[in-house]
Amino acid sequence: MRSRGLLVLAGLVLAVGAFIAFVERDLPTTDELAERADLLIDIDVDRVEKLVVSHGEETVTLERELTDEGEPSESEILGFGKPSVPWRMTAPLEAKADAGAVDAVLAQIAEVEKVRVLED
């Protein structure tokens, strides 16, 4: 009877350990959540596929170059050795965009912090 209870308890410990190892390892830590709390928007810059910038009546649309399967196309290496997915300007005209400049804009957007929260 005691060995059966010990086996059940060992199974529960293994199940909790597996849950922590496989599910919670991808979740952000408490420190990461605290850093993100002050951000205006919480975005993953690497997952952005389209950026539309409007000023007045002018609009520029930038899109990542994707393969037929919807995956980012081959990475190109920037001056500092950082791989970057190529971007294209799709509006108002079709042209290749500067991936470094687009990535820099996205990084700045991702770092915008809240100054205050308006209620009601």
Describe what you observe in this structure:
- With 120 residues, the protein is of the alpha+beta class.
- 34% of the residues lie in helices and 21% in strands.
- Strand 5 (87-91) and strand 6 (95-97) form a beta hairpin.
- The longest helix is centred in the N-terminal third of the chain and has 21 residues, at 2-22.
**Number of alpha- plus pi-helical segments:** 3
Please state roughly what percent of the residues sit in beta strands, choosing from under 5%, 5-15%, 15-25%, 25-35%, 35-45% or over 45%.
15-25%
**Backbone structural class:** alpha+beta
Distance between the termini: 62 Å
For this entry, give a set of tags.
120 residues; alpha+beta; 4-stranded antiparallel beta sheet; two-stranded antiparallel ribbon
Structure, briefly:
This protein has 3 helices and 6 strands, in the order ααββββββα. By secondary structure, the chain is an alpha+beta fold. The strands form 2 sheets. The protein has a 4-stranded antiparallel beta sheet. It has a two-stranded antiparallel sheet with strand order 3-4.
